[in-house]
Amino acid sequence: MSTFAARAERVAAVAARHADAVDREGRFPEEAVAALKAERLLGLQIPGQFGGEGAGLVQIAELCSTLGQACSAAAMVFAMHHIKVSSLVTHGLDSPWHGRLMERIAREQLLVASSTTEAGIGGDLRNSLCAVETTGEVFALGKDASVISYGARADLILATARRHPDAATSDQVLVALMADQISLVRTGDWDTLGMRGTCSDGFRLEARNVPVEQILPKPFAEIAAQSMLASSHLLWSSVWYGIATYAVDRARAFVQAEARRRPGQVPPTALRLAEVSNAHQAMRGTIVSALRRFEDAHGDADTIGSVGFCVMLNNLKVTVSDMAVEIVRGALAIVGLAGYRNDTPFSLGRPLRDVLSAPLMIGNDRILANTAKLLLVQKGSGQLMSA
Amino acid sequence: MNIAQDIREILGSNEAFAGKADQLSEDDSLFDRGLDSFGSVQLMLALEERFNIEFPDELLNRKSFSSIRAIREAVSTLIQQEAA
């Protein structure tokens, strides 16, 4: 087992112990996040020159899946943190301030949150109403952030905003705001069916006198196209794969226990398990082929930002999020009442409620509508093994 | 055929550049001026129709549509390929 895997297993053990309490109380998975920091897994992606371990997205994806089997909320916090870190690693290398920030993330194991969603805009990542207001060498920013996942617990927030008060809503920048530079007033509570521990409350965010060097030099449009879209869909998918895997493991254990009780007979549920296992393998294949394509692109911005790559990532998200729900529901059907109850070793209520968020976080219809536009120009390659 | 002028004309029919296409320099970033993903798809379609070309997948990226110069270079290459 690789060192990353062994460290993730130790965190997963902690996360699993507290997962029910995190869900029941709708609280931040603090034990799991403390364990992530203790195992130094928050700085993994940071390049060696800044004191990190230079891990790639594929390695992070594996850890997302491991954590997803233990506690969906902890896994999603880990994924969202690394989605933000991937933007810093991809676009912040030439900026001295962001280089120092990466050093601090690696050394102090800082937790990074994201603020893109805004009242009046909703979840449309590529538009903002709020704007950076620069005076000399500093700026101010006020944002009605209707959702900031674990915003109150993060050490810093990367927030989108218009470049200046007269800029178009799509002319955005990404700014790094340290927790001690902002005030957050809670404007909405995160009381949800599942994924309760991400604590994605709404906030009024106010920042004043922030040095302009904390604005990432690249336009957010490029950051979104070249790192965020890929890292979001790849890492979310890996978390959902972890949740689905946990459910399949429960169903398999249940069917095998039945088989042991009645030697010589194949339990009727085994056929359903075969179906679920089939879907689970197809889900894995979809994610692994997307991760391979990402690896093969070697960070080339033109490849990752191309129409074909974007269509592939959109399809990944839609397919995998729907399959994850289908698989966990299928597992519940196999396990039956023992899965429906909250107090058995086969309980599947929490993972089912958690995974129902998958088709909704960036709604699949919104993604399909975006794919529909891209398909107006995309050309096919017709090859099995390349693209 | 004045490709640059045709490109400006097409850009002028795009929401983001209506009435402003003539003020764009060859190297202005179209994305910074408000070209969004749907706008760039519309732009690609209009260019394909106007010049009777097809952008292959490897040219369907942000760089090819980032400025009037980038578009002109991509279009010229494709026109030459069609003619060859």
UniProtKB/TrEMBL annotation, chain A:
It is an enzyme of class 1 (oxidoreductase). Residues 11-92 form the Acyl-CoA dehydrogenase/oxidase N-terminal domain. Keywords: FAD, Flavoprotein, Oxidoreductase. It holds the Pfam family Acyl-CoA_dh_N. GO terms for molecular function: medium-chain fatty acyl-CoA dehydrogenase activity. Its EC number is 1.3.8.7. InterPro entries: Acyl-CoA_Oxase/DH_mid-dom_sf (IPR046373), AcylCo_DH-like_C (IPR036250), AcylCo_DH/oxidase_C (IPR009075), AcylCoA_DH/ox_N (IPR013786), AcylCoA_DH/ox_N_sf (IPR037069), AcylCoA_DH/oxidase_NM_dom_sf (IPR009100). It comes from the Bacteria. Residues 225-371 form the Acyl-CoA dehydrogenase/oxidase C-terminal domain. Its cofactor is FAD. The keyword RNA-binding does not apply. Belongs to the acyl-CoA dehydrogenase family. This is Acyl-CoA dehydrogenase. It comes from Methylobacterium fujisawaense. The lineage of its organism: Bacteria, Pseudomonadati, Pseudomonadota, Alphaproteobacteria, Hyphomicrobiales.
Automatic annotation (TrEMBL), chain B:
Residues 1-79 form the Carrier domain. InterPro entries: ACP-like_sf (IPR036736), PP-bd_ACP (IPR009081). Coiled coil: none annotated. PROSITE patterns: CARRIER. Gene3D superfamilies: ACP-like (1.10.1200.10). Pfam families: PP-binding. This is Acyl carrier protein.
